[in-house]
Design brief:
Blueprint (H helix, E strand, L loop, with lengths): L8 H14 L15 E5 L11 H19 L3 E5 L1 E2 L3 H14 L5 H4 L1 H15 L2 H9 L9 E2 L15 H14 L3 E11 L4 E3 L4 E16 L6 E6 L5 E7 L1 E6 L10 E4 L13 E3 L10 E6 L11 E4 L5 H10 L20 H12 L6 H6 L12 H14 L5 E3 L26 E3 L1 E11 L7 E10 L5 H10 L3 E3 L1 H12 L4 E2 L1 E2 L9 E3 L5 E3 L3 H8 L5 E2 L3 E2 L1 H5 L2 H4 L8 H6 L2 E7 L3 H16 L4 E7 L2 E2 L16 H8 L1 H10 L7 E2 L2 H23 L15 H22 L3 H30 L2 H22 L4 H10 L17 H4 L2 H23 L8 E8 L1 H18 L1 E6 L7 E6 L2 E6 L6 H27 L1 H6 L2 H31 L1
Helix pairs in contact: 1-25, 12-13, 12-18, 19-20, 20-21, 21-23, 21-24, 22-23, 22-24, 22-27, 23-24, 23-28, 24-25, 27-28, 29-31
The structure holds one RNA strand of 76 nucleotides.
Amino acid sequence: MAMDKIFNAAEAEGRIYDAWEKAGAFKAGANAKPGAETFSIMIPPPNVTGSLHMGHAFNNTLQDILVRWHRMRGFDTLWQPGQDHAGIATQMVVERKLAAEGQPGRRELGREKFLEKVWEWKTHSGGTIINQLKRLGASCDWSRNAFTMSGAPGAPEGEDGNFHDAVIKVFVDMYNKGLIYRGKRLVNWDPHFETAISDLEVENVENPGHMWHFKYPLAGGETYTYVERDEDGTVLFEEERDYISIATTRPETMLGDGAVAVHPSDERYAPIVGKLCEIPVGPKEHRRLIPIITDEYPDPDFGSGAVKITGAHDFNDYEVAKRGNIPMYRLMDTKAHMRDDGAPYAEAAKRAQEIANGADFTVEEVDALNLVPDHLRGLDRFEARKKVVEEITHEGLAVMVPENDPRLGKAAHTPVAPEEGGDPRDESYVPLVESKPIMQPFGDRSKVVIEPMLTDQWFVDTSKIVGPALEAVRSGETTIMPESDRKVYFHWLENIEPWCISRQLWWGHQIPVWYDEDGNQYCAASEEEARAMAGGKPLSRDEDVLDTWFSSGLWPIGTLGWPEDTEELKKYFPTDVLITGFDIIFFWVARMMMMQYAVVGQKPFSHVYVHALVRDEKGKKMSKSLGNVLDPLELIDEYGADAVRFTLTAMAAMGRDLKLSPQRIAGYRNFTTKLWNAARFAEMNGATGSDRQVPQPTATVNKWIVGETAKVREVVDDALAGFRFNDAANALYAFVWGKVCDWYVEFSKPLLLDGDEATRAETQATMAWVIDQCLILLHPIMPYVTEELWGTLGAREKMLVHADWPTYTASDLVDPQADREMNWVIALIESVRSARAQVHVPAGLYVPLLCTELDDAGQQAWDNNEVMIKRLARIESLSRVDALPKGCITVAAEGGSFAMPVADLIDVAEEKARLEKTLGKLEKELGGLRGRLNNPKFVASAPEDVVEEARENLVLREEEEGKLRAALQRLAELG
RNA sequence: GGGUCGUUAGCUCAGCUGGUAGAGCGCUUCGUUUACACCGAAGAUGUCGGGGGUUCGAAUCCCUCACGACCCACCA
């Protein structure tokens, strides 16, 4: 049956993938040689909510290449797939779905019912990305597909793995070792999802904002002399003040101030340190007084040099408050609305005043106090901010400056006229509100401003487990590529902060800690155990679940059955390579390193290959909001999975962003077509069904291509071994297109069509073998076309996916004689074609070739390859002559001089120009060579082979130069 | 503010441990020769960001400047 002219990817891909799966081709250990080494890769588990994007396509293509390559080489290979339960993302998706369907919401359903809904959703919609990965051609062992919530309470049938057991066991063990603790800390609070999140889940974004300046009046109307001096102590400014000036970007938090801090060395405020000042907001009759304290934190050169301390709503203030035993008043609820609980303001303020005056207090008591004035209670924090600013300004306690004060910036704001007070000096004074960019923290999923919040959370004491993770990379036990990411890894781990692992969500691994009535903790793998520990006291379980990354941190062991001592764990752990994007080095890579060492005392993987981000053709990050997203599935539909994979591979140079354009993919789709047609040519000429033996041909071309094949095999193996995926892809592209298609197929035509029986048979066998080698070597990158051709071109014992990867070497198969000869032939053909084209000899015209001199090697090369040269260079005949007739175009070859007598065809001036141009280039080269060789220092200090090479080069170039000059000479005689 | 990376042909990028610059796309001219027009043949284009230095020799190593990107960070 005749083959089509192109590969029908859309038709073939599904069929081929099914065949692979049916054959169990991807199963762990499939195609392993007896006693083989193992090779294992853990897939970075995509979120169950995820769908395949370009980053996944890239990431998984690279993994698949390594996996297929090892599997073909006979390793005992495992590519472990699975999904992550993705706490926040999944809970969000299900809640949205419930809302869209008009079903009862999460809170109405209650925890248990809601979780049922999540599992339901997971069962029906959680497999999307698996099918998408299959379309890419990912050869994961799907029979082992894992899920980070498998085996959790409430998990339905089919989700009965033991990942949950692993997570719980790790928590309990770490708790017992003192590596996990609970405490009231200031954490990043996401008011949208109403949960704590870790530092890593916060994105700091610069936005235009304001900084207000307010006056905190001194208690009892006290005054002091405020003096500013320059470095020499000269007085710049001096006035009597009854207030201290405070700058803030968050006026609403003033309600929770516990103190005002100045730097101990700041002489401006020295007279008032230790005194009390008044928070200029809230009901007048209950104005709170707070102490002015000293702390190293305030920078005297920034703003007024005085900082308000709100320990419960700012990370810096929190530290200051801890140092100074300043009460931390929490102002907001879980939605970041101003608190609306507890006693009325007057009562709370009274107690706060006692504390400010020195009364003893506890953290719990302070946290219970609601210092939000009654009329602000329940307001959104931004609403409250507006009100606070208004009230203070109206009262005349904003710092006033002239309208033209540079600090005001360009942004106009309506000055609020003071009802009383204000600055008496000039009516045109306005409140000092600086417009400036402010760094604000946002939740990476909610996109809502994060609120620092004082809450009880669970933490991993990372400082205690970070050591081995650092040491492993320092010592090279685990390597991280590229180097720059290794530095990033170190930098982060060397400055590691405690990891907040509790989330106020429902979808996740619930923390295995129970409390009795007195608040004592019982950490155990089950409620029964906890109860036993508590001596039968009534217990209630901690409501929180664990950060998703806590469980994905256990991915390498959890997917292999730990804590059970499984065969797989013994065989495939530690894994060999982790391939991942730089964006999750901290989230995932670093945590896996820490956790695996903490739990099983071993590295999770030997190599980490960090790849770049896929961007659009303009270098922009692909994002839905920008609308520049390239959907890998659409691209696969249009160009085929092989083209998409090859493109990503060819562009996978380490360390840089990868800008993807459809045009590029089309180019590699053309490459698959090229390969297809080479195979088609082979098939049409009976060059199929290689018997897997390396051919031992006699014809030079055949010897040559066998050697070229061996060379590229070595290049590909070396490249893949070094994770230089692009080098492998480019070498194969150059070989298949540039060597096999451009030359070998062309050379073979006269042999196959007109050669004698033996030559034909030999060429068929060689070509069949070469094409097979192309398919084998390309298979890891382009699995579909290659598998299809493999099946088409012969009856095989095994599918290509399990074909034996070759081990022949260049030193075995390269015939230096054949190599030289073919290079000579190719150079001659190229020279003839070039000369013809430049003087416009009609492309189809066969012309005679004259030869004035030709050495033995050249003669032999000609004789061995005459038919091929004649065909490809369009030569009619070769004759030896003593002198060239007038009007020739000359062609130089190593060891020979050729010419084409085409006097009636050529334009003398054009030919002259051609020769001169060539000569010009040559001369430049000669100049460089002579310059170097005439330099005694070069000859003395350069390595011998370099000098030798230069010498040889010089001889060759000079020979060429001579021929060109002779040709010009003849031309001159003609003209 | 700290860190990392980048600046090479019109575009997108390769160039490992220094030996004198490459690929793909695009462009120009020619071509339908029995694998392929998703093709073939022949071409053109670079003071390798600027400036110093080390070296016989630097796109490649060092210093410096400029521009760009990304990551981290508490300046109220």
